[in-house]
Amino acid sequence: MQAYGWSPEWEAALLASGHAGVPGRVIAQHRDGYRVATSSGEITALPSGRMRHDSIDTDLPAVGDWVVLHETRIVAVLPRKSAFERRAAGTEVRGQVVAANIDAVWVVSSAGQGANPRRLERYVALAWESGAIPVVVLTKADTVTDLEGEVADARQVAPGVDVVIVSATRGDGLDQLRARLRPGETIVLLGPSGVGKSTLVNTLAGREILATGDVDDDGKGRHTTTHRELVPLLNGALLLDTPGMRELGLWAGDTGLELAFADIAALAEGCRYRDCLHRTEPGCAVLEAVEKGMLDAARLESWHKLHKEAEWVASLNDPLLARERKLSDRAGAKAAEARIRDKRG
Prior knowledge:
Blueprint: H1 8-17, E1 22-30, E2 33-38, E3 41-47, H2 49-54, E4 66-70, E5 73-77, E6 83-87, E7 95-100, E8 104-110, H3 117-130, E9 133-139, H4 147-157, E10 162-165, H5 174-178, E11 186-190, H6 197-205, E12 229-232, E13 238-241, H7 255-260, H8 262-268, H9 285-291, H10 297-316, H11 319-344
Parallel strand pairs: 3-5, 8-9, 8-11, 9-10, 11-13
Antiparallel strand pairs: 1-2, 1-4, 2-3, 4-5, 6-7, 12-13
Helix pairs in contact: 10-11
């Protein structure tokens, strides 16, 4: 199992868990179960009935997890050292672990017109929150002329994050990525469909492992990756490819936002009030930076939007915050009704 990252640290974690059984790592998730790598080979396994009954969604196995098996039943998940979580797609409000026990998150985006700064900010915030190190990977460098400008734009919306621009067809930047592939470490590739994640995995692996597809005429990528899969490389590193995600809701605290918007956090140190909301307060250093052109107004608006979303998610699992939100909503509704009555006379 060393090929999938098994180490003395995980051996110690297994002993500390108190669970008897066979260890394995979840390397893929399908509708009919999990594919798990063990010392005896790969098997298809399902969570035990007790695990399904007792666990919340984010405690269930995810790709990258080390688990304990009794034959073909997963009876325990070893404590994670990191996890990339999002709010699950759909109307039901619940968390979903996309990848577990990762060392780095490669946020993959197309260079040029395919780049979306607001989406990139969201990915980077969740990447920091996971406990892993984010890297922005801009693909399709052969389709743009101003490479330095593309990198500079990405660094503006991802301060403090390394940015690598690559071309799988020309080979640009691939050596920089290969230098980051360290034996025993797991890297997850995240990004929308059509940005070339699977092509990147195949190129770095040196062989065709994952299916790839073209981008449609409307610029939207086709979903060639249909499930998350952990791919071991010859040098001992592991890459985790993921399907393109149309929805990427926050499901965590403020740590990721603080790091993703480090430029705003630094400016906020100069605000007159400690609890400044950066909206209309006097002496707000953040608003002053926007007025002087030092900070993009759209970036500040994105910060407001993501913070509001994070507060809403936090209130779902905190009764006190939920009550405060309800009271605030009621107060806002009453104020709106009062303004309407005043207008009508």
